[in-house]
Amino acid sequence: MFPEKKTIVIGNWKMHGSLQSNEIFLEKLLSTLEDLNSADFFCGIALPAIYLFQFSSRLDNAPFFIGAQNVAQWEEPGAFTGEINAMMLAEFDCKFSIVGHSERRKYFGETDKLVAKKASNLLKSGIIPLVCVGEGQQEREKGSAIHFVKNQIDEIASCLGSDLLKKCNFAYEPIWAIGTGNVAKESDIVEMHGAVKELLVQIMGEVPAQNISLLYGGSVNAENVLSIVDQENVDGILVGGASVSMETFGKLLEKLAGRRQ
After folding, report:
1. Is the per-residue pLDDT at 259 higher than 70?
2. In angstroms, rounded to a whole number, what is the distance separating the alpha carbons of residues 216 and 227?
């Protein structure tokens, strides 16, 4: 699981990066985290798999964890050209991996059953799954957003079982808010996160459910981060575009660090 009693900040680079720009980002990230003495938040970066080695080679005593953006549905090595399994990710100090991101669901047709299979593979290799769930604009406008997200979690839970589900973490990302600049209203975030927590309690009990971290993702930036993480049942954030550059990601981290003062 992610560290308890810390705000979790996960940057999702999506399809970004180059060797040269990555080095600049790394230097600035390490310097920023050292200056901020980030004891109150946990920082992780989900990278394209091709850059995991570049980042893992710099992880000695580094105050952040690296993660993957996806993992193969197949556990064992085999004739699956182009795929990367969980055992491979673990060799590069990969501590967590996103599964079921809305872009994977949209462009690659990933189902909740497939997301559960990937989460299971990650857990067998000691990697934390960060399971993404969220509704589209249509579900939000119809008033069925909570029902839709609960169905996603129910399907994943039925495939994984409660014992494995206890070892997962979740990110609620309203699809209509990703990359649009639109952020869900605070009341909607509170309502959805509360509903998810309530469902997890029903599935596995009070104590295990409270140990699961629930992040919000959807156009998070330095201007809105504090109003989001201060909401009830929001344990952290999944940051997209604002995490790709240290100019924007650094400001976000500074806002979180300044909250202690």
Report:
1. no
2. 12
